[in-house]
Design brief:
Blueprint (H helix, E strand, L loop, with lengths): L1 E5 L2 E7 L5 H12 L18 H9 L3 E7 L2 E11 L2 E9 L8 H10 L6 E6 L3 H9 L3 E2 L2 H11 L4 H5 L1 E5 L1 H5 L2 E2 L4 E2 L1
Parallel strand pairs: 5-6
Antiparallel strand pairs: 1-2, 2-3, 3-4, 4-5, 6-8, 7-8, 9-10
Length: 185
């Protein structure tokens, strides 16, 4: 748990529990409205992420952390170890808390929990998300690398592969990832 006091506000980052799932869903679905009309229409649905989907992700090994101010959950982000890398999954900040550093603090906290290369997948049309990750030291990989990485480390449909990007951190650039018949350096 990370705790700090900012202008009489107590902010903490802590592991989310089953008691947080309803609030997590509210934040994810509030934040995901930004995707509506931006990502392909066949990929958008409401709710964007149901309680069942969140519980499925948790069962699959996604460990969610939450950013709270004075006990109010404002952002969530997941981390998942897959093979030889760590994936950042489902990063969402409540609309009213955007542009206040919540996502950056969550990302830094989760990156500190792993020594593995970190990968992030997001929609290619979500340019704001791509810029956020680039500001935090991630780089978009080539189309070929993206296709190989998405097939190796994620379980997503071909349509999502076609409309996504993958970003890698500096560690991934220093420690080549084995992509089967090719190696990413």
């Amino acid at each position: 748990m990370t705790k700090e006091k900012i202008a009489n506000v107590t902010a903490i980052i802590r592991a989310c529990t089953s008691a947080d799932v309803q609030e997590m869903a509210a934040i994810i679905n509030d934040s995901a409205v930004a995707y509506k009309g931006v990502i392909p229409a066949d990929r958008w649905h409401e709710p964007y992420m149901s309680l069942e989907e969140i519980n499925h992700e948790i069962a699959a090994g996604v460990r969610f952390s939450g950013y709270l101010e004075d006990g109010v959950l404002l952002g969530v982000m997941g981390i998942q170890d897959v093979k030889d890398v760590t994936l950042i999954r489902h990063a969402y900040v409540q609309t009213i808390a955007r542009n206040r550093g919540v996502g950056g603090k969550l990302l830094a906290c989760l990156r500190g929990q792993t020594h593995r290369p970190v990968l992030i997948g997001t929609w290619s049309a979500a340019t704001w998300a791509i810029r956020f990750y680039e500001r935090h030291g991630f780089t978009v990989v080539t189309e070929r690398e993206k296709n190989l990485l998405l097939k190796k480390y994620w379980t997503v449909p071909d349509r999502q592969i076609a409309t996504s990007v993958v970003l890698v951190d500096e560690k991934s650039k220093r420690e080549p990832l084995n992509l089967g018949s090719a190696t990413m350096v």
